């Protein structure tokens, strides 16, 4: 396979061409929080506003028709990207968080009752944790936890202890936003189905970095955000198998989602309209289609290989730092994320000192408080990589960490 032309990729991202004050180059290592946007995505959003903007699914005049066509085109691109069977299985939402809440409230409240169980685990982002806690509180169901191994993987050997015919939902992340762990989704889906449960996959981190095939993997619901996939913020996706979306109640009510409104009751349209009440994120959803085209042009195989290469380099080099502790499994089980602490350095101080060198990382609990509790740390520093990062960025991170350690008098 011809490797990714990293210089050409970097050239696609205007923000990377602009030095920071004092001429410092930008070293952006926070794609796990939100990815930068290629020119084609920025251009697409602008194209909508400059050339044919109108509300969606309302006007028969020509702009309305163009917007509808573009939106349905974007929906079709999402369908192909995650290899879903039908485009009515693709719902535009405001983001991964809303998609997961839609499943918990729309499907969960209808299908769970006291005594039922939801299987989660401690590596989940709060977006794939709190909605299940709430669902349990509202229905009388219980959250069970699949234990984690010491190196931050799901302890699959113990799944029989927590998965049973009481389990109605298995909710799991495709890739941990803190540990980077890649979870065995196909195996989990099979086990969930054997137990009679549905599997809900939080794809916020996995979809931008790994091939996704909802049918081959047996995924029932998949949630992800546009902004981590090099697309605009404000738009996300919920994929649901057609028959499951039919069983899902809408959680937002109003225009567009209805079939017929009477004075005393209303009936609903079918999916996806049923879940897209009000004016949706028109330009953002259309530009998400451009982001997917962009990833398709790069090729997900090449993206995966390139990020793996950068990750391996980072993982090995970070271990040169005295007092370094990297959380999570070895590189063979992780995607392009490394979270770490350095003995004697507070993560916030570290992140601030790295910023002085133009290296942007995230610090804190990364919306994974139960995981930090389990690991016995209150905060970590996270370097997460995207298509535009290279080994040079890792070298810059290393130099910046050495600078920070000197400032903190650790060396
Ligand atoms: C694993 C994971 N799930 C869910 C989310 C929530 O995504 P959003 O804030 O775009 O809704 C994030 C965001 O960081 C994440 O990393």
UniProtKB/TrEMBL annotation:
Sequence ranges assigned to domain Aminotransferase class V in this UniProt record: 27-397
Keywords per UniProt: Pyridoxal phosphate, Transferase
Coiled-coil zones: none
Tagged with keyword Lipid metabolism: no
First-tier enzyme category under EC: transferase
CDD domains the UniProt entry points to: SufS_like
Cofactor: pyridoxal 5'-phosphate
MF term (GO), any: pyridoxal phosphate binding
A Pfam family: Aminotran_5
Catalytic activity of the protein: (sulfur carrier)-H + L-cysteine = (sulfur carrier)-SH + L-alanine
This enzyme's EC code(s): 2.8.1.7
Superkingdom, natural source: Bacteria
InterPro entries hit by this protein: Aminotrans_V_dom (IPR000192), Aminotrans_V_PyrdxlP_BS (IPR020578), Cys_dSase_SufS (IPR010970), PyrdxlP-dep_Trfase (IPR015424), PyrdxlP-dep_Trfase_major (IPR015421), PyrdxlP-dep_Trfase_small (IPR015422)
Protein's GO biological process: cysteine metabolic process
Functional description taken from the UniProt entry: Catalyzes the removal of elemental sulfur and selenium atoms from L-cysteine, L-cystine, L-selenocysteine, and L-selenocystine to produce L-alanine.
Similarity field: Belongs to the class-V pyridoxal-phosphate-dependent aminotransferase family. Csd subfamily.
Protein name: Cysteine desulfurase
